[in-house]
Design goal:
This protein is an alpha/beta fold and 287 residues long. Helix content is 40%, strand content 17%. The strands form 2 sheets. Strands 3-4-5-6-7-8-9-10 form an 8-stranded parallel β-barrel, surrounded by 4 helices. Helix 1 packs across helix 2, helix 2 runs parallel beside helix 3 and helix 3 crosses helix 5. The radius of gyration is 18 Å and the shape is globular. InterPro entries: AKR2_Oxidoreductase, NAD(P)_OxRdtase_dom_sf, NADP_OxRdtase_dom. This is Aldo/keto reductase.
Length: 287
């Protein structure tokens, strides 16, 4: 698989990375299956794993930790987890619990989870806010890099990277996302200019792009990003994603335009629910 630089960190990752949200009972993935999928992914060169304490009440982190510990592969991977708490104390408590579930004494990356509004951003940056926890954790060696994520409004993440030199940003970069509040159009150029690693997510737009599966992956891979995380709940999905990633050739501008025209009808509130400020807090964790 093609590898790309991860911002200014000096690291490189394959363009396909692992979203661990779905290796849980909730998505009909057993623990044994989860362990097998994670280790198969590592065997095939995937080293970047994204999770969060809020994914199935910690089960995602727990299973990722078990998969790595069982086969002694913790040092083979980069773990990114998150805090959905907006306070220093609450975030540090979440990190302590995450480290226990992941069976590690540190994670490579910790991020502010899905900052949707300027008000949430202000809370994180205020005295006693979550950003204090990220900075303290880095000073203590509990984390290596500081990150932020967002699904909704790219202007919030643009403001964030103007306020603080985040190492990375995880943002919604499906083809459908390009049509409303586009991170690809508004956020990506500025992040690249600043040397911030950008991780694409929502690649399948919560399954709405499944009829265009290969094109959806190719579109996001073709953007100037560091990597893209894709949720995988079965070995079949992993193998399908690997095959597409290994044979990847960048879409031309005309191919991208043609694809966007083909899916333009998806640019509506029923499909792109995460673009709405009415998106209920917590929904992105379980869908």
């Amino acid at each position: 698989m093609e590898k790309r630089m991860f911002g200014r960190t000096g690291q490189q990752f394959p363009l396909l990375s692992f979203g661990a949200q779905r290796i849980v009972d909730e998505h009909n993935c057993t623990e044994d299956e989860a362990i097998a999928i994670v280790n198969r992914a590592i065997d095939e060169g995937i080293t970047y794993f994204d999770t969060a304490p809020s994914y199935s009440k910690g089960q995602s982190e727990e299973r990722l930790g078990k998969a790595l510990a069982l086969h002694g592969r913790r040092n083979d991977v980069w773990i990114a987890t998150k805090t959905n708490d907006r306070t220093r104390d609450g975030s540090l408590k979440l990190l302590e619990e995450s480290l226990k579930r992941l069976q590690t004494d540190h994670v490579e990356e910790w991020r502010l989870h899905n900052i949707m509004t300027m008000e949430e951003l202000d809370k994180c940056f205020a005295k006693g806010g979550a950003l204090e926890a990220l900075i303290e954790a880095k000073d203590q060696g509990l984390i290596k890099h500081i990150s932020i994520s967002g699904h909704t409004n790219p202007r919030v993440q643009l403001e964030a990277i103007d306020r603080y030199p985040f190492d990375s940003a995880l943002v919604a970069l499906s083809a459908a996302d390009h049509l409303v509040y586009s991170f690809a159009h508004e956020f990506l150029p500025k992040a690249n200019e600043k040397g911030i690693a950008v991780i694409g997510m929502k690649v399948m737009a919560l399954g709405k792009l499944a009829p265009w599966y290969e094109k959806a992956l190719q579109y996001t891979f073709s953007l100037p990003i560091s990597t893209a995380i894709v949720g995988m709940e079965s070995m079949e999905q992993l193998e399908q994603n690997l095959a597409i990633a290994k044979s990847f050739k960048p879409m031309t501008d005309l191919e991208q335009l043609s694809f966007l025209k083909e899916i333009m009808h998806l640019a509506n509130p029923d499909v792109l629910r995460w673009k709405s400020t009415d998106w209920v807090s917590g929904e992105w964790y379980v869908r």
